[in-house]
Structure formats: C-alpha cells, structure tokens
Amino acid sequence: MKKPARRPGAEAVTIRPATAADLPGVIALDQETTGLAKPEYWHESFRRHGGRRGGGGHFLVALAEDRVEGFIVGEIRAWEFGSLPCGWVFAVQVRPGRRLRGLGSRLFATVCAAFREAGVDRVRTMLARDNTVIHAFFRSQGMTAGPFIQLETRLE
Ligand SMILES: CC(C)(COP(=O)(O)OP(=O)(O)OC[C@H]1O[C@@H](n2cnc3c(N)ncnc32)[C@H](O)[C@@H]1OP(=O)(O)O)[C@@H](O)C(=O)NCCC(=O)NCCS
Fold first, then answer.
1. What CATH number should be reported for the domain holding residue 120?
2. Which of 100, 105, 127, 139 to mutate to test the pocket of ligand 1 (most atoms within 8 A of CB)?
3. Is 113 part of a structural domain of the chain?
C-alpha cells in the first residue's frame, strides 16, 4: 500500500465533546466513509457515550468553522471477557479532505488523555482485517496485537 503524501497541519480544527447538534455532521461523515447511513446507531451511541455526564464514555468531534471534520468514540469498559478496566475506541473517522494532516492522531491523543485521567493505562480497539488504512493508522499510534482473540461462527 502506497501512503499518500502528508498535507499541511490541522491546527485550525477544534476538538470538543459532541453535542446533539453535531450528530447530522457525524452521520453524514460516516455515510461518506462507509457508504451506509445509520442515524439510529449514532443517536444511540451519542446517548450512551456522549455529553458531559462524567461517565466512562467519550464522543468527541473535531470542528472547523462549525463543520464536523472528524470524530472519535470510546469508553472505559471493565471485566467483560475477564478484562481489567481499559479504554476502548469504537470508531474514529476524519473527513477525506482533511486526512493526513494529523487530525486522526489528535483525536486519538485526546481520547487517550481522557482515559489516562480516568485512571486506566491501556487502550484497545478492533478493526476489519481488510481495512489497511485504519490498520496503518492504529499501528502509527503505537498499537499492536493484544492478548485477546475474537472468534465467531455463522448461525444457521
Ligand atoms: C484512519 C483515519 C481516521 C486517519 O485520520 P488522519 O487524520 O488521516 O490520520 P493522521 O494524519 O493523524 O495519520 C497518522 C498516521 O496514520 C498513518 N496513516 C494515516 N492514513 C494513512 C494512509 N492512507 N495510508 C497509510 N498510512 C496512513 C500514517 O502513519 C500517519 O502518520 P504519517 O502521516 O506521519 O506517516 C482516516 O483515514 C479515516 O477516517 N479513515 C476511514 C476510517 C474508517 O474506515 N473507519 C472504519 C469505521 S469506524
């Protein structure tokens, strides 16, 4: 995979917790990235992880001139699968025209800082095997294979 050239910086972009007003921008960006519109999923994700409730969830948006340029969603989870408390990143996306300017890294650093502040020292994620871009991105953030494996079977 040949990596496209890096573009100028993402300094003009502000990162903050999402509000309900940001959801249409999040939904549109996700539809642009994945080809699927999932408004109900994102509203539910915002209810679970968003706002300033002080819980373990983080739903952050990156904005430039009020436009959603990127977002990241994560949460601190504990004890499922026998796991000690750790941060999970469920989704990270940057608008295609803003990529390769460091914004994805800033979003990841921001959510990791929130996880650290909450007392956890580890972050995990899951990604599709064939998504080479997201794989390269997470590797660039220092992530490597973790101690758990995922299994599945088809239900007849
Ligand atoms: C992954 C993604 C968030 C990265 O955002 P970004 O703002 O471009 O990331 P950064 O500029 O901070 O890149 C950080 C590093 O990631 C790696 N990287 C990012 N994009 C890459 C690409 N297209 N090819 C190879 N490596 C890449 C590089 O190592 C890069 O560092 P470098 O430019 O100094 O070499 C963005 O490409 C994206 O939204 N992709 C689609 C997301 C997706 O498919 N999500 C699945 C559903 S959630």
1. 3.40.630.30
2. 100
3. yes
